[in-house]
Structures are given as C-alpha cells and as structure tokens.
Design goal:
Among the domains are: 189 residues, no CATH class; 104 residues, Immunoglobulin-like. It is 43% helix and 19% strand. It is built from 18 helices and 16 strands. The strands form 5 sheets. Strands 8, 9, 10, 12 and 14 form a 5-stranded antiparallel beta sheet that branches. A 4-stranded antiparallel beta sheet has the order 13-11-15-16, with no helix packed on it. A 3-stranded antiparallel beta sheet has the order 3-4-5. Helix 5 packs antiparallel against helix 7 and helix 7 packs across helix 9. It starts with 8 loop residues before the first helix and ends with a strand. The chain binds iron/sulfur cluster (SF4) (2 copies). The site of one iron/sulfur cluster has 15 residues, from helix 15 and helix 16. One iron/sulfur cluster (SF4) binds next to helix 15 and helix 16.
Amino acid sequence: METLEREDPVAKEVSHDTFRNTISIVEKDGHRKWIYPKKPKGRFYNARTFVSWILLIILFGVPFIKVDGNPFFLFNIVDRKFIIFGQIFTTQDFYLFGLLMISVFVSLFLVTAVFGRVFCGWVCPQPVFLEMVFRKIEYLIEGDYMRQMELNKSPWNAKKIFRKGLKYLIFFSLSFLIANIFLSYIIGIDELWKIINEPVSQHLTGFIAITIFTLFFYWIFAWFREQACILVCPYGRMQGVLLDKNTTVIAYDYKRGEPRGKLTEKDAKGLGDCIDCNQCVVVCPTGIDIRNGTQLECINCAVCIDACDSIMDKINLPRGLIRYDSMEGIRTGKGFKWTPRVIGYMSVLLILLSVTAYLFASRKDVDVNILRTPGLIYQNQGDDKVSNMYNFKMSNKTFSEIPLTFALSGAEGEIRLAGSEFSLKPMEIHEGTLLIVIPKANIKKLNTPVSIVVSGNGKVIDEVKTTFIGPPN
Ligand code: SF4
Ligand code: SF4
C-alpha cells in the first residue's frame, strides 16, 4: 500500500524507503518471520484490555441469553433459522438481511474513513483473542519477547517441553471453548448442551463440527496469527481505498520527530524528538515501523503510542509523537475535517437504515407466498366444477403456533387444502398445495381475478391476489 507521506515533501525527505520492498512478516529468503512483540503496557493497552473483556463477556454470554425460553441470537444456516435481538428472520427476509449487511458495510466504511482501522484494533475478534487472550498467556508462560526468542532457540529440555506443552495445552483448551461457543451461535446453546452430554454417536455431525472449529481456532491463534490480518482479511486489504489523508490513523508526527537520532546528539545536531529508540517497533504485533507512515499491516492497536509516550515521559518531552491523527492534521496542525466522502457515507447510511427500519416495522408475523402451480391450467371436478392448483409457502416468524385458515374472495367457490386446516409451528416454514374450486356456473370469463384470504388467530394475515383460469360459462 502506498503511504500517505508521499504527498508531503517533508515526509518524502524522511521516508526510509526500504520498507516498501518488504513485508514485515516475511524474511528476505521468503520464509515466515515470526513476530515477537514486546509485552505492551500503557493507557491505550489498558483501555483495550478493558474493552476486550467487555466484548468477550458479551461474546461468551449472548448464547446463554433467552427471551421467553427462546434464543436471543441464532444463526442457524443449516436449518435457515435466524434470530437477531430476539427477532426471527427467515429466508423470505433475505432482502432485510441483505440491507442490514449493506448497512454494516457502509458503517464500516464510514468509521474507517473517519477513524481508520479502529475496528481492527479495538473490536475485531481476531486481534481481541490473539492480543488479549492468547498473547497474554504466552507472556505469562514464556516471558517477554526476549525470553520467548531465547526459549525458541534453546535445545529441547525439560523446561522447554514443560513451557511449550503447557502453553499449547491451554491454547488447545481455549480453542475448544471458542469452538463450542461459536457452534452455539449456529445451533443454539440447548443443542450444544445435548452434544456435550449425550453419546458422540448421537451427534456425530456436531462432534465433527466442534473438532474442525477447535483445530481451526488453534491453528489461527497458535500459528497463523497476524497473517490473518495482513494476508487474508478482505477488510484489511481494502484499507488502501478506504483511507485518505483526512482519516484519523495511528500516525507518527514526522514534523516533530525528524530528523531522528540519539538523545545525546539532539541539541548539538538540532535533531527532532524521535530518539530512534525503536520501542515503537519492538512492541508492534505486526512487526512494522509506524514512522514509515500508514501501512497495510497496521491494525491500529495503539501499543506504539503507549511505547513512545513512555519514552517521551522518560526524556521529559510532551507525549503524542505517535498519536491518533490524520496525515493532513500532522501536516497542517488542524483537527478533524468533514469531507465529502464522510458526508456521502453518512447520507447513504441514513437512507439505508431508514429503509431497513421501515421494511422491518412493516414485516408480517407470517410470510405468505401463493403461486399458481406451473404447467397446469385447470382441472374438471366432476361435471359442474373446475379447480386450479396453487403452491404455497408460509413461514411463521413468531415463537407461537399459529392456526391458519384460508378463504376465497372475489368469486363464489371454495378452497381445498391437501390436508385440512393446519397450524404453523413456531419458526416453521411450511410448503404445500391448495385447490380453488369454483362451480362452472360461476365462471364468467377465462381469467377470473380472485383473492385468497389467509387468517390466523382470528385476524387476516394476508390477502393474496391471483387469477383463476376456467372455461367461461
Ligand atoms: S504500527 Fe502501532 S498501531 Fe499499527 S499495528 Fe503496529 S503497534 Fe499497532
Ligand atoms: S518510540 Fe518514539 S522515540 Fe522511540 S523510535 Fe519510536 S517514535 Fe522514536
């Protein structure tokens, strides 16, 4: 990704261009470079830890929340049942789901245009789990980055086997826990409970799913790590087009910091505030040097701010050499500016949310779809009646059973179901066929407009307009 300093002559002057030809996680020979970030500390790291704990409590707690015995959230892709904030969505609500997804993407674009990749550093489950759970355990068992490096280079002995064994055992157990929670979002906590408590033979699919998820999460957090953000995540790859010079990012104030150099030579040589201590680099979990400008690898974790602030405190200089700011802000010293891009995203989002809210509010409890059976015209029912066949699909978007009745309107006749009347069970999607039967004497034209009135619990749910084909009398 091209850095934003390119536009600025001062930045161009100070740019250390070798970083453009390398990726922080790849060695010169093409092998993976394992990142050993220094254990971070500071106010942003503490704040992120606090936010992470809240997010983790929500993530682990939500599957247990029930409203009237029903899940609060469920993403059952297999059975096509979705519950979001206690509201049922079926496949017939796909347009709403689509609108909601588009709104989420536009919100993300908006937040990114204003605050950069703040979602990655503060909210995304990948860095939250990696930096706030797995990495903390690693520091606890193997020590800080230097000790980790030493341990990895040291020969296998009892100490190394114990530390590595313990770490990976905990990593695996955590991955197993995350896999269970992940599955509970798909099948619900009750089904998960059955998989845990009942013999494996009765829940082979569930058992296989948990095993696959466990291995996947273990692979991600024990080995793949920051590569997910740098190489795989599509959102990360899109930063180049989502950010601009007015976006607030984690930025190095090159005007204040350059030319960088040793503290002892600062006054003599008229150097900037950066004492080239490299602390902002060694703490970076993606292994980059933020002094080279905004880079694709930066996940906005802010630990380089903490690292630099602690150095500034030690050398009695003001904090904020690395800070949340835009490149334009650093260049001009001015604060946030409303740009047409931000206003555009906000307008689109407002329209999208209004349309979604309207469609959601006008949603019915039961979705009714009735269509004439393709390929059929009409059938004679004895000598004096004619019938048309229709296919119907009903979905119940409530947690209650709804008994349904059908009535014909617009012509003298009757509706015959391929059973008798029926009830839609909670969240059930029911497909079937029905016949409209009309005495020949009542058919006046080839195409008779009719309506099928569907009622439930004594209330009209829907009135579907269709046509009845029959030989005119
Ligand atoms: S450059 Fe700073 S904010 Fe970006 S990933 Fe590295 S440490 Fe985090
Ligand atoms: S931590 Fe601050 S002073 Fe040290 S190298 Fe980074 S920017 Fe310069």
